[in-house]
């Protein structure tokens, strides 16, 4: 799994190394603020990683001192209201994906690989939303978080009113959304907003260590199915969740990764999962 690949984009860097796709938002002079071009390129990069059989985990981070400071103010200032629901941001309906995960920013959960946000600096507005739709959030000790919408005369955008309370609880979500106050990495950890806080110079190494574990120590097939289960669960009753799990369990018992999971344990050797 030592495949190495780089792809050229205008606003981000994309590289695959050792089964890990690293996507770096690359507008450091603008604190990696989102533009329409970056939005389009980011979705393309994540979908490319999702289709790549050599990729087992995705890391999303930012160049320079910010992760993503939200929408670029120059574009936000002239954003036409109709752009929010413009057809260009929607994909053709995919019967294999829940409709909820086909919108402008909520497509991260539909990616078949785990997404790790390595939050190297400020994550505000849409930048924060991207981290919330990720599966893991690792923060540098210098990271700062803010919803920011109320300070711009906006509302809780793109499903953040749905996802944020599920991560930090209703009371904390109310606080963060209505006050728009900034919080540091330590408070974000205490609120459960992030999984871990690490020194800034160790952030990417920590993210790669997690990505490597997801790609080698555990079954990529199991990770793919469990990610789907976790994101589907809020829409299901307990009975539906159990029924879905039972169906998936039957298929997992017939999978190559199940056979390898038993074999490497009995033989007391490192696992060699195929992802099938």
From TrEMBL:
Lineage top rank: taxon: Bacteria
Protein's UniProt keywords contain Repeat: no
GO MF: enoyl-CoA hydratase activity
Listed EC numbers: 4.2.1.17
Xref: Pfam families: ECH_1
Enzyme class, first EC level, given as a word: lyase
UniProt keyword annotation of Lyase present: yes
Family: Belongs to the enoyl-CoA hydratase/isomerase family.
Protein name as annotated: Enoyl-CoA hydratase
Biological source species: Advenella kashmirensis (strain DSM 17095 / LMG 22695 / WT001) (Tetrathiobacter kashmirensis)
Organism classification: Bacteria, Pseudomonadati, Pseudomonadota, Betaproteobacteria, Burkholderiales
